[in-house]
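Discrete fold record:
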Amino acid sequence: MTSGENFFQGDDEDRAIATQIVSGQKELFRLLIKKYERPVFGMGMSFFHNSEDASDFTQEVLLKTFRNLSRFEGRSRFSTWLYRIAYNTAINSVTRKKDYHSLVEEENIPDNNTPERDFLKKLARNAILEAITGLPERFRVCVDLFFFYDRSYQEIEAITGYPINTIKSHVFRAKKILREKLTGYKGAVEGDIN
């Protein structure tokens, strides 16, 4: 997003719905649930790595969102505000018991190719997963939000509280580490195939 105008583009509907809910039309919250339940569940899977905890997390985040809707001031995108609630809820829940797990771990490989292509995709996915899992947690969070949730640096700042320059540095360093790890892997796979 290159300008302040573009930063909020496409979020007007969520803001309007939020305003109507705060004004008393609470049944409209189902529209926000329909839109955000799945992405919040995906974030829950990234942190908790099982569907039961991710479902509980999703319900908790949506309840917190509903209860705090009057605090949404519209200075950021609604999705950024909601993901900030989700991120803080997840961090508070896992700090004492688990590490963060990357969203890439939950992606499925489609089965519509030849066995050779499926095998290569599986090798590539496993290499990426292994490389991402090896990143420091602060890098993994930024990479997930940037690449898998398609969040801008400004949105990642609002969600994580990291300064933008730190986020840029984390994403840059993570990409450099991944490039180094995956370059070695690429050569090994090509050597096996030839």
